[in-house]
Amino acid sequence: MGRPSDIIVVGAGIVGCAVAHELARRGASVEIVDDRPVGMGATQASAGVLAPHIEAREGPLLDLTVRSLDLFDDFIARVSAESGIAVLYRRTGTLTVATSDVEMRALEATADVLARRRVPAFVLDAAAVRSEEPQLGHGAVGGLLIDTHGFVAASDLTRALVTGSRRHGAQLIEQSRVRRISRREGEMVVDTDRGSLTGSAVVLAAGSWSSQVAIDGVTTPVPVRPVRGQLLSLGWTEPPLRRVTWSSRCYLVPWDDGTLLVGATVEEAGFDERATVAGVRDLLDAASELVPHAWAAGFRGARVGLRPASIDGLPIIGPSSAMPNLMYATGHYRNGVLLAPVTAQLVADAMLDNRIDPLLGPVSPSRFGNL
Fold first, then answer.
1. What is the pTM of this model?
2. Which of 65, 141, 155, 347 has the most CB atoms around it within 10 Å of its CB?
3. H/E segment holding residue 164
């Protein structure tokens, strides 16, 4: 791919905005197009947890998430400085709580994997886990503390990325649904329901809607499907939790303003974006089982996002084999916020400097054929 001068980024979620920001700050002319306001897809229902080591499964996803977490300190500092927007960002760690001997053995196995990777992690017995988090219920039999983890306010970060991008000259085009990507007379053409845009390259970062964008020369849509996730917001009046607290049924994220986020369901519901009674009930039950004071919290609302999952669980990042100057950046599923910095870096390196990082190999769209 030759260095493009004008790049159209399809999608204004966290991944699309991070890519646009990185391209713009490196000197590219960028347009961001979406039919929704910035960050109003899956991003607005993300709790922003930054925790690559929770499951600690070896493989390309862990490699990607670990590198991206290492980028976060500088990423937040740069974006906040360029945009003038303060973004809530904490690296206070995660506490994964076991409520059975089986879960405790799984945490011990995770700790062994982390020890081999030289990641500090501490296995806690029942007394120690309650000392680390006094709000826990009596069902806690132990836990695993990982200090390097944290969380970020995903919606605020996305707005900061757009603001920073615009200060580097990027343009935001809202209320325009992308229907087709094609190539005509040497130019890339993005057809929307409000007209066409032309440029020298396109990044498809439309999340769950990526498969609904027709691409000339591609007969099978990109294999990304929506997985519904519901997230609750509670008003917390007790002493705040000390860090992100995780169980097998939910996770809890304590914000500085007294908000406690409770997430998240995993539902194969197609493009249905409704909050449901069943989803809210299950999350409230899980949160209250983990931290009993959740029963007395105020209920502030529920948010729903459709997270883009590929058929093999890995993101789809890299150049198209069917359409010159088309780059994919989609399929991040539950790791969109965590993977935003590294995705932006990998895409910009490939598009602007023809530098293909080895990390792109396992997540290339070519693994699914002629995309």
1. 0.96
2. 347
3. helix 154-167
